[in-house]
């Protein structure tokens, strides 16, 4: 038998980009929740809380009161990001056991796949490589977007130094409470605030790189498992050498694996339904806020590079899960058609017919991840974009 898969193939090794990012921010489910982790987690939480409070203060007590709606939208974007990454961390903590179990199931499937035929191994390898691409997309998008903020500040400070008029440029422009506002240009205070903003920048990047690819990876893995079952059931009745007993045995194995797939999907729904509802709502506001920030800069004759990259990341934030959930739904539909057209009507053993009927009945229900109110698919993404565009038009009409 040809060996397509590596002997040491496992989740952490294949998707090392995401798992490394989660280990960096200490959210990985395999990280021991001991005293050291608790101290690290409290420090991360407190620093994130300070950033969130400063953003809210700037929005409520300066930007809106002074009519600076462009600045308010900019700070609102970061406040939403701060709340979102904290919520994602909470999800990983609350469902740590479930996420660990899902990763273990993926590892077990990889181990079993090493004994599959070459065609089935290629299916597993194909979907694992697509999962790696999701990690790479997020790594490039998140890192390039977050790197622009400190690089821009450092370049502006370097430019002012070369011109002989050195000025301190913050990583992110905020209006702080009066105690800090009066002294924010003092070197030690400036360095502290710059370091706090830089920490938030790196922490947010690690959460997006580590967390966001996880569910799409799981969905791609399920697509691969359904494709394997599709292949097996298509061949089951076409091979005339199989006895009735062998057909029933193969059919039983397919059903057992199919039940595992449905359980896997149900666990994902239980863990992430509320999160994806939240993501859909926040993306609906992040898109128009970011677009408004970009258009306001263009009106002032500037090019807001950091928020152009951020706009792309916001689209990816909800588009990627919608795309792969849509792919999962399409793969489930292909499997349903494969059951119907597998050649069961030519089989002489009538005992298999009730089983085929049961599988067809169950397969009518779409295999898809959902939010609280709707399925996550490309139609949902399109609807979200329409709502975001309506909000953007309202913002332009009111504040532009």
TrEMBL record:
Per UniProt, what is the membrane topology? Multi-pass membrane protein
Asked if the record carries the keyword Iron-sulfur, the reply is no
Q: State what protein this is by name.
A: Odorant receptor
Instruction: Name the coiled-coil region(s).
Output: none
Q: Which InterPro entries match?
A: 7tm6_olfct_rcpt
Q: Name one GO biological process term.
A: signal transduction
- Where in the cell is the protein located? Cell membrane
What family is this? Belongs to the insect chemoreceptor superfamily. Heteromeric odorant receptor channel (TC 1.A.69) family.
Species per Swiss-Prot/TrEMBL record: Cydia pomonella (Codling moth)
GO molecular-function term, one example from the UniProt record:
olfactory receptor activity
Per the record, the major location class is membrane
The alphabetized UniProt keywords are:
Cell membrane, Membrane, Olfaction, Receptor, Sensory transduction, Transducer, Transmembrane, Transmembrane helix
List the GO terms this entry assigns under cellular component, sorted alphabetically: plasma membrane
Report the PANTHER family cross-referenced here.
ODORANT RECEPTOR, ODORANT RECEPTOR 19A-RELATED
Transmembrane region(s): 41-60, 72-90, 137-158, 188-211, 303-320, 356-378
């Amino acid at each position: 038998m040809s060996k397509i898969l590596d002997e040491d193939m496992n989740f952490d090794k294949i998707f090392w980009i995401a798992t490394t990012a989660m280990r960096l921010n200490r959210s990985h489910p395999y990280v021991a929740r001991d005293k050291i982790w608790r101290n690290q987690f409290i420090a991360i939480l407190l620093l994130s809380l300070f950033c969130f409070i400063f953003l809210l203060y700037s929005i409520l007590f300066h930007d809106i009161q002074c009519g600076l709606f462009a600045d308010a939208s900019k700070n609102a974007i970061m406040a939403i990001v701060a709340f979102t990454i904290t919520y994602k961390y909470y999800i990983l903590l609350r469902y740590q056991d479930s996420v660990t179990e899902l990763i273990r199931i993926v590892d077990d499937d990889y181990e079993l796949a090493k004994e599959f035929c070459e065609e089935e191994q290629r299916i597993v390898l194909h979907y694992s490589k697509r999962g790696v691409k999701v990690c790479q997309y997020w790594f490039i998008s998140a890192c390039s977007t977050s790197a622009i903020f400190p690089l821009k500040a450092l370049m502006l400070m370097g430019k002012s130094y070369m011109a002989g008029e050195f000025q301190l440029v913050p990583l992110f422009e905020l209006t702080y409470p009066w105690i800090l506002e009066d002294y924010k240009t003092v070197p030690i205070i400036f360095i502290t605030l710059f370091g706090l903003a830089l920490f938030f920048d790196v922490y947010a990047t690690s959460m997006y790189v580590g967390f966001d690819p996880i569910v799409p990876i799981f969905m791609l893995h399920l697509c691969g498992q359904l494709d394997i079952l599709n292949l097996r059931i298509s061949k089951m009745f076409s091979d005339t050498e199989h006895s009735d007993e062998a057909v029933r045995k193969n059919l039983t194995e397919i059903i057992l694996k199919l039940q595992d797939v449905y359980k896997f999907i149900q666990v994902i729904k239980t863990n992430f339904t509320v999160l994806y509802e939240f993501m859909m709502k926040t993306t609906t506001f992040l898109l128009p806020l970011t677009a408004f920030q970009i258009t306001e800069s263009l009106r002032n004759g500037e090019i807001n590079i950091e928020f152009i990259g951020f706009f792309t990341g916001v689209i990816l934030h909800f588009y990627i899960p919608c795309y792969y959930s849509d792919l999962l739904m399409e793969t489930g539909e292909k499997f349903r058609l494969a059951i119907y057209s597998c050649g069961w009507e030519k089989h002489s053993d009538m005992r298999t017919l009730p089983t085929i009927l049961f599988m067809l009945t169950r397969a009518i229900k779409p295999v898809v991840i959902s939010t609280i109110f709707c399925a996550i698919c490309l139609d949902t993404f399109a609807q979200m974009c329409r709502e975001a565009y309506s909000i953007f038009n309202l913002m332009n009409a009111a504040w532009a």
